[in-house]
Amino acid sequence: MAEYPTIRKINGIVLSPSAEYDLAEIHTYTTHQRGLNQADRYIKFLADGMKQLGQAPQLGRPVTERPGLLGHILNLQENGKRLVMAIRFIYQVEESGIYVLRILHTAMNLTDHIADA
Length: 117
Known about the structure:
- This protein is of the alpha+beta class.
- It contains 3 helices and 6 strands, in the order ββααββββα.
- Helix content is 37%, strand content 32%.
């Protein structure tokens, strides 16, 4: 697995081991497909999205497949025009902050990836 900028806790947001793995996989895949600089930019974009989520956890919508969980989709556009990727944060709000269970591309089957979350 490639080195990537780690994000373990940001503004009261804690990542599960699965979410950490998801970030590493996003970075590795993007590095192979688009290069290290682009991969680092994606991770920064995701970190910024998590910061926003930390400030406004109500942005999420209930995940019908798993009551109690929320999902928030973050869209990355290139030059404000073409959609580059859409990532879904799956999380729950706890007294201590937000616990992110998964970070998944929206093309992934949600049910397959949150069954054990």
